[in-house]
Amino acid sequence: MAFDFDTPTNRLKTDSIRWDSFDSKEVLPLWVADMDFKSPPCVIEALSDRVNQGIYGYTHSPHQMNAMIADYLYEQYQWKVDPEWIVILPSVVSGLYTTVQQLTESDESVLIPNPIYHHLRLACTSANRPFQEMPLELKDGRWVLPVNELSNLITNKTVLALFCNPQNPGSTVFTREELKEFGNFCLENNLWICSDEIHAGLVLDSNKKHIPLASISKDISEKTITLMSLNKTFNFPGIGLAWAVAENPVLRKAIQVGLHQTIAPPSLLAYTATMAAIKEGEPWRKELIAYLRSNRDLIYSKINSIDGLSIGNMEGSYLAWINCTKLNHPDPYQLFLDAGLATSPGSQFGQQKFIRLNFGTQKARLTQALNIIESCAKF
Ligand SMILES: Cc1ncc(COP(=O)(O)O)c(C=O)c1O
């Protein structure tokens, strides 16, 4: 391997949310979704050069930025996007909140998956919009949407569906057929769609690929805001930059409400990091995927050997969604925390009896975490 993912990094006392939120050095924190790996050397070098310039004035998005993103989307996903459809945002989360706020009236409601990354739900509650949950079901080891049951959830006030692919926390990489079925369901019910695809660069299965929902058909594209970012893949979420793709000018206008006013633009370093990752990050990303895949395989073999725990296929990202229902413990999150392992509680995503384990870390740390889980499961 040309890049080092194995040497432990020390993130204590860096104000890291993941590492510095627990008082005790005894807690291994595998929760919030960032990784314990340094960003690719190309990103670090580009940032160093920019920092060494010493002047950090107001900076607009580089003129070539949208075209670079459009080329990247074509290279990675064979998705043809006009650079004009792209709106640069500071973060995916701000895009989620703006979308819900702008695409729904106060008496209109939103469909969201369950389980789901909590900000999709919070975007609805903070805008005071009712939402209905689309429960994912485990089918052949994959968390999928039972699309033929979704019409029961729709009322004439349902106007927007939020979607997440690859799925967080379930880690499903949806197939073309599944996307087509869901997209067409939204078209038939005249729903806007907001598709959070922040984990797109982290598909682990070599026989799977990320397919943007909006790339399925022009009709779906006209109804969809796609939110993407390289923050997750190249591990610089603390610098942060995202983009929305919206073919429909109505949606493009909606996603820009508040931008440069109540919503600050990305910092100048975010443009630098993102462009460096686009230009030169691919060899690093490929090795990252291989490393995460071997971490994932470690999790499969350990978790499947523990009575009371189970896990679905982990097709994308570095988040393991572990089912602890059969442990018969009232609070699995607390059980593991008391033993020195911080995971994300399943309740954050809508499922109390699950935990989410971040395996974007060195193998030695992951092994330590799995040993803690194993010893607790025998309580
Ligand atoms: C599905 C999903 N969307 C959005 C985010 C956060 O994105 P950002 O940091 O760009 O706001 C995360 C972070 O974990 C995520 O998992």
* pLDDT averaged over residues: 96
**CATH class assignment of the largest domain:** Alpha Beta
Shape: globular
Largest sheet: 7 strands, mixed
Strand content: 15-25%
* Category from helices, strands and their pairing: alpha/beta
Question: Which oligomeric state applies?
Answer: single chain
Order of helices and strands: EHHEHEHEEEEHEHEEHHHEEHEEEH
Present as ligands are: pyridoxal-5'-phosphate
Can you put this structure into words, describing what you see?
With 379 residues, this protein is of the alpha/beta class. It folds into two domains: 110 residues, Alpha-Beta Complex (Aspartate Aminotransferase, domain 1); 216 residues, Aspartate Aminotransferase, domain 2, CATH 3.40.640.10. It is 34% helix and 16% strand. Helix 6 links the parallel strand 8 and strand 9. It is globular and about 55 Å long. The two termini are 39 Å apart. The structure holds pyridoxal-5'-phosphate (PLP). Pyridoxal-5'-phosphate binds next to helix 3.
